[in-house]
Design brief:
- It is flat and about 70 Å long.
- It is an alpha/beta fold.
- It starts with a strand and ends with a helix.
- α3 links the parallel β3 and β4.
- The protein is built from 18 helices and nine strands.
Length: 490
C-alpha cells in the first residue's frame, strides 16, 4: 500500500514538526512552496496524499492541488488554511476537487484521521483504475482474437477453446509460479515446435521462470507482459520453428493475447499478496496487543505457531485429516497467533489477576473465545481477501472446546471442533505447561508430555495427541530454541 504523504507549507517549523510526528505512521516528504511541491512530485511521486497550506508565496494551495489533480489524478488532495470561509471552501472543492478542507491550527488527531481516510481512498482509486485499464486491455485483446479467429474451422475452434481454458486456469492460480507454468504450457500448445520461455518478476527480481518446447535458439521475439502499472515480465519465443517457418502476424497477435491474460493474472496475484501482507501485519499487531495485556511469556505465540505446524505436518495423510496440505499448514502458522485475540476485551482486573479466578471472574474470562470470533468475523466481513482469517476465526472461537464436549463456549464434541482448533489446543496447552507464568513454575518436558497423554480422548483429540507425541523430540527443540529470555519475563 502506498503511504507516501507530501506536506506543503511555507512555515518550516510547522511542516518539520508534523513530519517528525508523522514519521512512524507515514512516509512523509515536505516542500515549502507550490513550485517545490511540483518538482518533488515529479521526482519522488506519485504520492498517495498531498496536504497543502492555502496561503504560500508563488501560488496558493488551491492552484497547487488543481495541478496535482491534472497530473496525478488518483492522489488525494487535502487543503489547510487559517482563513476558513465558505468562498475558499467552495473554490477548493470545485477547482482542486479537494478531499478534505481543514482549518488551522489543526489538532493532530484530525489530521491523522484525514490522512488515514485519504490513504484508503487512494488505494481504492488505484485498484479501480487498474481494473478499468485491465478490462479495456482484455476487451481489446478479445476483439483482436475474434477478428483473427473468424472462420470457425476445427483448428480455430480448438484454439479458441485453448485460449478460453487459459483464462480460466490463470484466474484460479495461487502463485506467480503457477501462473508462469500455466501460461507457458498454453503458449507451448499454441506454438508447437518453438522454443519458449516466460519470466515473471516481483519487485524487480525474477520470481518465476518456465520453459516450454525445444531449446530456445536462434533469433527470438520478446513479448512484454505488462499492465498499466508497468512491466511484470516477458515471453521469449523463437521466431523460427524447427522447420524454419517464421511467426505469422496472427501468431504475434496470439502471443500478445496470451501475454495480456498472463499480465492480468500476475497483477492480480501481486495485489492479493500485497493486501494479504498488509492484512497479516494488522492482525498480527492485534495479536501482539492481546499478548502484551496477558500473563503470557515473550515468545508464546511463536512457539505455539511452531508446535501447530509440527503437529499438522504429522497429521498429513491420516484418515480424517485429508484437508491438511502445505497451504493449510501455512494458514495455520498465520492463524495460530490470533487464538487469544479476544482477550483484548477482558478487564485487566481479571486478565492480570495472579491468583485463581472466582466463578464470576472465570465466566467473564471464558468470553474471550466468543469475543475473538466476533472480532475476526468483523475483519473477515470488511477484508477484500479474507484468506487464512477464516481459519483464525475457527481457532479463536473453538480452541477451548474439548473432545468430550465439556469445553466452551459451545460444548462442541469430537469432530464438531474444527481441526485447526484441535491442533491449537494441544500446542497452546503444552506451551502453557512448560513455561513460567506469574502464578506457576514451568513444568518439565516429561511431566507436560505425561499430562497431554493423560487427557487424550477427554480434553484433546486422540489422533492429534498421537501426532504430537510422534514429534516429541522436535517439540523439545522448538521449546529450547524459542525459550524466553529472562528480561522478557520481568
Amino acid at each position: 500500500m502506498n503511504n507516501k504523504v507530501l506536506l506543503v507549507d511555507d512555515s518550516t517549523d510547522v511542516i518539520e514538526g508534523l513530519a517528525r510526528l508523522m514519521g512512524s505512521d507515514f512516509d512523509v516528504t515536505t516542500a515549502g512552496s507550490s513550485a517545490e511541491a511540483l518538482d518533488v512530485c515529479r521526482e519522488r511521486g506519485p504520492f498517495a496524499v498531498v496536504v497543502s497550506d492555502q496561503q504560500m508565496p508563488g501560488g496558493n494551495g488551491i492552484e497547487l492541488l488543481s495541478r496535482i489533480r491534472e497530473e496525478w489524478p488518483t492522489t488525494v488532495r487535502i487543503l489547510m488554511t487559517g482563513h476558513a470561509d465558505l468562498e475558499t471552501s467552495l473554490h477548493a472543492t470545485n477547482e482542486g476537487e479537494v478531499f478534505r478542507f481543514l482549518q488551522k491550527p489543526l489538532p493532530h488527531r484530525i489530521l491523522w484521521n484525514a490522512l488515514d481516510e485519504g490513504l484508503s481512498r487512494h488505494e481504492r482509486a488505484e485498484v479501480e483504475g487498474a481494473l478499468s485499464a485491465e478490462l479495456l486491455s482484455t476487451r481489446e485483446t478479445v476483439g483482436r482474437l475474434a477478428s483473427l479467429l473468424e472462420g470457425g474451422n476445427q483448428e480455430r475452434s480448438t484454439l479458441v477453446h485453448d485460449i478460453s481454458s487459459l483464462a480460466h486456469e490463470l484466474s484460479a492460480a495461487g502463485s506467480l509460479r503457477q501462473i508462469a507454468e500455466i501460461a507457458c504450457k498454453s503458449a507451448g500448445q499454441v506454438f508447437p515446435g518453438r522454443g519458449l520461455r516466460l519470466e515473471l518478476t516481483s519487485l524487480g527480481t525474477a520470481s518465476a521462470a518456465v520453459n516450454a518446447g525445444p531449446a530456445l535458439e536462434g533469433p527470438v521475439h520478446k513479448e512484454v507482459v505488462c499492465t498499466s502499472d508497468g512491466e511484470l515480465g516477458h515471453f521469449l519465443i523463437a521466431t523460427l520453428d524447427q522447420h524454419g517457418e517464421p511467426l505469422t502476424e496472427g501468431g504475434y497477435e496470439l502471443l500478445h493475447a496470451i501475454a495480456s491474460f498472463t499480465a492480468v493474472a500476475a497483477h492480480n496475484q501481486l495485489r492479493r499478496k500485497e493486501r494479504d501482507s498488509a492484512q497479516h501485519s494488522v492482525v498480527f499487531a492485534m495479536a501482539r496487543l492481546a499478548e502484551t495485556r496477558d500473563n503470557e511469556t515473550g515468545k508464546h505465540i511463536e512457539r505455539v505457531s511452531s508446535y501447530c505446524a509440527l503437529i499438522a505436518d504429522a497429521l498429513v495423510g491420516r484418515p480424517g485429516f485429508e484437508e491438511i496440505d502445505e497451504q493449510y499448514i501455512q494458514d495455520l502458522i498465520r492463524s495460530a497467533p490470533l487464538h487469544d485475540i479476544g482477550k483484548v476485551g477482558i478487564p485487566d482486573a481479571i486478565l492480570l489477576k495472579p491468583g485463581k479466578l472466582d466463578p464470576d471472574e472465570w465466566a467473564v474470562m471464558q468470553k474471550h473465545a466468543s469475543l475473538g470470533a466476533d472480532i475476526l468475523g468483523q475483519v473477515i466481513n470488511e477484508a477484500s481477501s479474507p484468506g487464512y482469517l477464516h481459519m483464525a476465526f475457527d481457532i479463536a472461537g473453538c480452541h477451548h472446546e474439548k473432545w468430550d464436549g465439556t469445553g466452551y463456549p459451545n460444548n462442541l464434541v469430537g469432530t464438531e471442533i474444527p481441526i485447526s482448533a484441535r491442533v491449537l489446543s494441544v500446542a497452546d496447552c503444552f506451551d502453557a505447561l512448560t513455561t513460567v507464568r506469574p502464578y506457576k513454575q514451568a513444568w518439565s518436558m516429561e511431566r507436560a508430555i505425561d499430562y497431554v497423554r493423560e487427557v487424550s480422548g477427554t480434553q484433546f483429540d486422540p489422533d492429534v495427541v498421537e501426532a504430537f507425541l510422534s514429534r516429541e523430540a522436535e517439540a523439545g527443540e522448538i521449546r529450547m530454541r524459542l525459550a524466553d529470555e529472562l528480561d522478557e519475563l520481568e
